[in-house]
Inverse folding.
């Protein structure tokens, strides 16, 4: 309702009697110049908006924005899942596309790595500051170059199995961390979603139609190889997201409190709500502290919901800080500094946005 009121000026409570009329009014507004994406971008006072782009994306739309002369800051984010996860739909086709856009003939593991490094450099040249990675679990393990190439060759021949896919993804998460240390792109990892759970929906409408259900997720052991190798490196920033909030206090907060490279992303997806945010503050902050989090960045696909989502986070943050003040855990000066960081400062720092 906040979005309807604040963005579209709707004061009526929607119901069966006015739904069609309100819908038509919204369609009319969205077609007007005042509701163009660029006008809304400026009206919402957005400083940076990042897209999620496949490793094979040509980034032509980002180049077109730059050439248009518009000053809005739209940055790409490198998302290599479709070529890194061997069980991704159309993996071999994706590899062929990677060869094309990178100008590297990807025929083995070494050329695959080289192509990915070149694509990351291309993304960074257009302003990218981050990468984004999804995996069923946060399992990490390092393979030798010989082992990685053997799996890659089996995949090219269509002979890889589920174990190959799991081990290769685990290795590539390690490789992505290594690349982030070299090129300083912030690394985001969000595991733990069993996608397309409802087969009826999947068969009728295709993938990613909302039937993505959280999985119980273990981080302490799964991330041990990566954090042992890279977790103390000051050049790495690894931001973790979770759909299993039972891990907040048990694993994620202690890990983020210990490893300099690790930060916690905001409550995400099902927990991007007032109750979800409140539980996040209660379970994470005492152990991790606010400076080991990225505070809040939303990943909505609903552009007009952006102001409401950030307003909710800021109100939840203020409410949590007010509780600390009245219990004399912090004083009002601390609270003023902390609310500024939670609202915007920590996200800018975590994602290396360098915004004044």
């Amino acid at each position: 309702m906040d979005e309807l009121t604040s963005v579209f000026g709707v004061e009526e409570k929607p119901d069966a009697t006015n739904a069609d009329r309100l819908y038509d009014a919204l369609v009319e507004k969205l077609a007007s110049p005042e509701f163009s994406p660029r006008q809304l971008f400026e009206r919402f006072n957005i400083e940076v908006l990042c897209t999620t782009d496949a490793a094979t994306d040509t980034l032509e739309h980002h180049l077109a924005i730059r050439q248009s002369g518009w000053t809005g800051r739209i940055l790409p984010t490198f998302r290599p899942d479709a070529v890194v996860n061997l069980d991704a739909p159309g993996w071999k086709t994706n590899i062929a596309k990677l060869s094309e856009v990178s100008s590297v003939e990807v025929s083995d593991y070494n050329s695959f790595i080289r192509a990915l490094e070149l694509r990351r450099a291309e993304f960074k040249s257009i302003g990218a500051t981050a990468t984004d990675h999804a995996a069923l679990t946060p399992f990490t393990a390092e393979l030798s170059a010989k082992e990685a190439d053997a799996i890659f060759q089996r995949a090219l021949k269509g002979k890889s199995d589920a174990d190959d896919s799991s081990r290769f993804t685990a290795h590539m998460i390690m490789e992505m961390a290594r690349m982030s240390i070299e090129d300083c792109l912030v690394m985001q990892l969000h595991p733990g979603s069993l996608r397309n759970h409802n087969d009826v929906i999947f068969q009728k409408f295709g993938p990613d139609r909302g039937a993505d259900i959280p999985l119980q997720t273990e981080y302490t052991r799964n991330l041990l190889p990566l954090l042992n190798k890279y977790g103390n490196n000051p050049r790495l920033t690894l931001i973790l997201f979770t759909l299993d909030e039972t891990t907040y206090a048990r694993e994620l907060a202690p890990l983020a409190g210990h490893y300099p490279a690790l930060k916690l992303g905001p409550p995400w997806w099902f927990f991007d709500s007032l109750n979800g945010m409140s539980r996040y503050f209660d379970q994470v902050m005492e152990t991790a502290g606010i400076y080991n989090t990225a505070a809040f960045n939303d990943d909505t696909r609903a552009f007009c919901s952006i102001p409401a989502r950030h307003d909710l986070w800021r109100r939840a943050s203020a409410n949590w800080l007010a509780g600390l003040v009245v219990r004399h855990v912090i004083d009002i000066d601390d609270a003023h500094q902390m609310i500024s960081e939670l609202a915007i400062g920590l996200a800018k720092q975590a994602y290396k946005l360098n915004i004044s």
Summary: The chain has one domain: 47-300.
